[in-house]
Amino acid sequence: MSPILIIAGIVGLLVIIVFVAVVAQFFSLWFQALLSKARVSIADLIGMRFRKVDSRVIVLSRIRAVKAGLPITTAQLEEHYLAGGRVTNVVSALIAAQKAKINLDWDTACSIDLAGRDIFDAVNTSVNPKVIDCPSRESHKATIDAVAKDGIQLKARARVTVRTNLSRLVGGATEETVIARVGEGIVSSIGSAESHKQVLENPDNISKTVMARGLDAGTAFEILSIDIADVDVGVNIGAKLQADQAEADKHRFQAEAEKRRAMAVAQEQEYKAEVEKNKALVVLAEAEVPKAMAEAFRNGNLGIMDYYRMKNIMADTDMRSSVAHPSKPDQKNE
After folding, report:
1. Closest by alpha carbon to 156, among 126, 182, 129?
2. Each residue's pLDDT tens digit, 216-254
3. Where would you tag: which of 32, 92, 188, 331 has the fewest CB atoms within 10 A of its CB?
4. How do the domains of the chain map onto residue ranges?
5. pLDDT tens figures, 115-152
6. Which residues contact 129 (CB under 8 A, 6 or more apart)?
7. Contact (Cβ atoms closer than 8 angstroms) between residue 98 and residue 69
8. Yes or no: is domain 130-237 CATH 1.10.645.10?
9. Is the model's pTM score more than 0.85?
10. Alpha helices per DSSP H over the chain
């Protein structure tokens, strides 16, 4: 035999060995799919290896879909896998939705899964509604506090039964929004009650009022019922507010009275200063009298007899003043 034939035979043998090894690697999956009537070719399995796709996840998911009667192709499963989706979760959700007679197609399920929502949990919630505590257990508040028109505080806890609305799951608000809206509705309902006794007598009126508001609009859930689990009486907020207002008014009136007192004291001091000023002016005026008399003597306008008569008049005036206003005994002793 020629060397060329020997080399060709060796190469052919190596190719056959490699092909058998590759086929043997995917044979179990291929054979499993074949027996399940969910045909997947060897070429598709080899292509998945090159595309970095987990062939086992794709084949097993296709087998489950075919057995459930879902028209899902291998290409669709690969596409969702490469997009970062959870193929197993989506197929499980579609099977559960089909069994529960829920209208859910492949594209919708994939979009919900790629949006980060748990599509399988959403389908389960559609079949088995779940109960949400309001306020939530993670909240730092244990009750929803509201005040009736009579000023009495009420502390309420509610339980909201919801189921998933698959058509609004993408872009719909989450549980936190539902809890916030229900809490707001409870506060508004209690606040509009004329008396806290009305709320205690008929707590179901709160549920009816809140349900009538359509709080599930724009959310990913449909509210089935709102049940008031507990209502407790808190403090008398109205009386407390009145007491605080009275205390604030007292401080305000005290401040105003202190302001008026300070203004009166300041005005009194101003008057005293004005009196002292006028006394000083009188003293200054009296000091000018001797000067004027001396000037009159020099100019001949005042004679000596006129001077003596003026002194007699001043002495007579002092005597009359002492008779009219006698000094006190202690002043005489002094």
Report:
1. 182
2. 888 888 888 888 888 888 888 777 888 888 889 899 999
3. 331
4. 10-124, 130-237
5. 888 888 888 888 888 888 888 887 788 888 888 888 88
6. 161, 162, 163, 224
7. yes
8. no
9. no
10. 3-35, 42-50, 55-67, 74-82, 87-99, 106-114, 119-127, 175-191, 196-201, 204-211, 237-299, 304-324, 329-333
